[in-house]
Design a protein that fits this description.
about 30% helix; transcription (chains A, B); elongated; alpha+beta; DNA-binding (chains A, B); Chorismate lyase; 9 helices; two-stranded antiparallel ribbon; Arc Repressor Mutant, subunit A; DNA-binding; Bact_HTH_transcr_reg (chains A, B); homodimer; UTRA (chains A, B); 10 strands
DNA sequence: TGCATCAGCTTGTACCAACAAGCTGAGCAA
DNA sequence: TTGCTCAGCTTGTTGGTACAAGCTGATGCA
């Protein structure tokens, strides 16, 4: 009958109770010692079971406090609207979206000249290790880390648009700035994948165990070649990316709210 | 100096050695007892460290065999090309893509009439729990589970397209079938998110610890209302979704291969 | 030769013990 | 009242032990 190992039974029982509302999001689970008594198992076995739930992102633990059922509030990102001249990118769409949602945006910004990593060089069609401008952005919503965004521009582009290396923000947006120089972004290629965060990503995004990152790579093209490559990392549990394709007039009709 | 707990030092050291090629993808790590000797730590501590790497998706373990460095082979999905009348969906694009990649596609298929889940009902603009046709697809590549796809059609649509409830495949594709009835899909709305798999998903996709799922929801619209909602789950480590937006003629120029 | 068995490796499960470290509220002191 | 300390809760870390269970290659029998 009871072929499942005990720590798995513990995890399954707790998961059911989380699902059926016995422990709603934000509430605390019983302590390890209480669970130990309830399931007649050692503390180690209980910890094994709880650890399963943690790595699945259902609960989080903190020393001294206990285990808490996680609650997410998903943030919507409209990826197909981001980039055109009406709505230039580079923080504008982000700040607007966040403010409209009644949240407070905040970002730190950094510019450097670095060798292009292989992944980026491939997409920009330049030599691996050749120089590129990196504009790096670390974004927060209500002071919670939200995403990191690293945009690389190939070196040949800098000769035409020297302001790309300026340390500050480009007020009108980089897309619009480049367009004013006759370099227009006429299309882009998006790649989306998911994986567990590297320690570096976990640090920047303050991600605990059991939360994957969404990786979004956007390569922008002018008429004749790639002009930038943006790699954005999001907390997977707090973000959802949206694409609108074709005629969606039926979607907004009678939309509640 | 050495503030990091020992099990973390073990994980970090092994991660570095994986990154720098000491243990390339597919190779085996030393056994727990060997590592125990090397790091002068108990087996429990070593297991704690290894468990970190497992939940981060860097290595996988199996009883009797040991720990193996994972290797992924990413599969590209062109999401913006999937759905139009030239390339109808429902397995066609999947089979074509997989065959073109020199792999062997295989899928199981199921049709049922069920109450629409809340998530789907919201998108189809029907009452939660009202009946809907579910066409469910479990897809494999070279006999490895690849994705599950659940498409819901609202009940009112079935009255116009009764073949939707047929248990078998619809040869010409559902999109084309519906178009032949005058119900044309003129646009769609995509939502993409990532999270850790539920036990059910882990079972269907044979996902081990440390691998997230990519969730792809596509809602298709006719001129006046939503006509279907497709939820696809992928192994996050084996798939990458692509979107092409705008003019990308520059992308394919001089493309190798 | 061919096949079954088993020793000896591996990880998995389960228990015990002890102390470190973080948090909270009670209670005392200024 | 305000602020500090500390007892007593929580989880985190590390050590130990024992046996179960899966895999592989060597051994030896038919």
């Amino acid at each position: 009958m009871n072929k499942q190992p005990k720590y798995r039974q513990v995890a399954d029982a707790l998961r059911r109770e989380i699902d059926n509302g016995t422990y709603p999001p934000g509430s605390r689970l019983p302590s390890e010692s209480e669970l130990s008594a309830r399931f007649d198992a050692s503390r180690n076995t209980i910890r094994n079971g709880l650890n399963l739930l943690v790595t699945q992102g259902l609960v989080s633990s903190s020393q001294g406090l206990g285990y808490e059922v996680t609650k997410h509030e998903v943030f919507e990102l409209n990826a197909s609207r981001f980039e055109n001249l009406e709505f230039p990118q580079n923080g504008d769409a982000y700040s607007t979206d966040v403010t409209n949602a009644g949240r407070r945006p905040h970002q730190t910004f950094r510019v450097e000249l670095t060798p292009a990593p292989a992944y980026v060089a491939e997409r920009l069609k330049v030599e691996e290790g050749s120089r590129a401008v990196l504009r790096f952005c670390h974004r927060f919503v209500d002071d919670v880390p939200w995403s990191t965004q690293a945009t690389h521009y190939p070196e040949w582009l800098v000769e035409q648009g020297p302001r790309l290396t300026e340390p500050g923000d480009i007020a009108e947006g980089t897309t619009r700035y480049l367009a004013s120089l006759g370099i227009e972004q006429v299309g882009y290629f998006d790649e989306i994948s998911a994986r567990m965060p590297t320690p570096e990503e976990a640090r920047l995004l303050e991600i605990g165990a059991g939360v994957p990152v969404l990786l979004w790579t956007r390569t922008g093209f002018s008429n004749d070649r790639p002009i930038r490559c943006t790699v954005t990392t999001f907390r997977g549990d707090l973000n959802r990316m949206n694409y609108e394709i074709g005629d969606l007039s039926a979607r907004s009709e009678n939309e509640p709210q």
